[in-house]
């Protein structure tokens, strides 16, 4: 029974971590056109038998330099710093997080069903 409980806890923590990762990815996409915005990169860490979202880091890549002399943030050369968010990367990361979430959900559901079967056997 302890192994099933551990599986439930591990899968649950994985779903929670991937949900938080998706939240950060959505924030990155929403701010893709915000000048000076730096992409947030979630980092996972082991926590007991599960996983958790660790400290979120900012992507160190330089932001895109955009030429628009009429922009209020433009410097003397007519450029300003855009964001360093790449929408293709965000889409790929979101797809990966979604699939990982779904895999954890299947594991959680299977462990729950096995636990319920054990309780049904005990009640007989």
Walkthrough of the structure:
The protein has 124 residues and is of the alpha+beta class. It is 53% helix and 15% strand. The chain is built from two helices and six strands; from the N terminus they run H-E-E-E-E-E-E-H. The chain has a two-stranded antiparallel ribbon with strand order 1-4. The protein has a two-stranded antiparallel sheet with strand order 2-3. The chain starts with a helix and ends with a helix. 11% of the residues are buried. The model has no long low-confidence stretch (mean pLDDT 91).
Topology order in helix (H) and strand (E) letters: HEEEEEEH
Average residue-wise pLDDT: 91
Q: Share of helix among residues?
A: 40-55%
Which assembly state applies to the chains in this document?
A: single chain
Total helical segments: 2
Q: Let me know the number of strands.
A: 6
**What is the spatial order of strands in the main beta sheet?**
1-4
Q: Could you say which overall geometry the principal axes of the C-alpha atoms support?
A: rod-shaped
Largest sheet: 2 strands, antiparallel
Uncertain runs are: none
* Relative strand content: 5-15%
Structural class: alpha+beta
Task: Describe the structure in brief.
By secondary structure, this protein is α+β, with helices and mostly antiparallel strands. Helix content is 53%, strand content 15%.
Blueprint of the fold:
Layout: H1 2-30, E1 40-41, E2 44-47, E3 50-53, E4 57-58, E5 65-67, E6 79-81, H2 87-123
Helix pairs in contact: 1-2
């Amino acid at each position: 029974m302890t192994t099933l409980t551990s599986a439930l806890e591990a899968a649950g923590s994985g779903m929670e971590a991937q949900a938080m990762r998706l939240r950060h990815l959505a924030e990155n996409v929403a701010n893709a056109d915000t000048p000076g915005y730096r992409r947030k990169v979630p980092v996972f860490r082991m926590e007991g038998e599960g996983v958790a979202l660790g400290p979120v880091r900012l992507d160190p890549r330089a932001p895109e330099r955009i030429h628009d002399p009429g922009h209020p943030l433009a410097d003397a050369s007519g450029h300003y710093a855009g964001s360093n968010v790449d929408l293709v990367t965000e889409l790929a990361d979101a797809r990966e997080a979604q699939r990982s979430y779904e895999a954890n959900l299947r594991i959680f559901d299977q462990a729950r069903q096995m636990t319920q079967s054990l309780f049904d056997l005990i009640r007989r």
